[in-house]
Write a structure and sequence with these properties.
There is one protein chain. The chain is mainly alpha-helical and 64 residues long. The chain has one domain. Helices cover 86% and strands 0% of the residues. The protein has two helices and no strands. The longest helix has 31 residues. The radius of gyration is 15 Å and the shape is elongated. The mean pLDDT is 83.
Length: 64
């Protein structure tokens, strides 16, 4: 489970960055503005997801 939650956390972070930043970096003004607004709207749910997945990673971390 630990590895699964780590992979999900990585995917969660990367997908958010792709959705919110890549359209602006490609130079398309309309897609860039839409991506930026999507990033602003989804920031709080994304932040909650990072916190939840981070807690799950910490909880399922195998003890040594």
């Amino acid at each position: 489970m630990y590895t699964l939650f780590r992979v999900l956390l990585l995917i969660w972070i990367v997908v958010f960055l792709v959705i919110s930043c890549v359209p602006a970096l490609t130079g398309n003004a309309i897609l860039g503005a839409a991506g930026l607004m999507t990033g602003v709207i989804l920031f709080i749910p994304w932040l909650a997801g990072v916190a939840i997945l981070g807690c799950l990673v910490w909880f399922f971390n195998p003890r040594r």
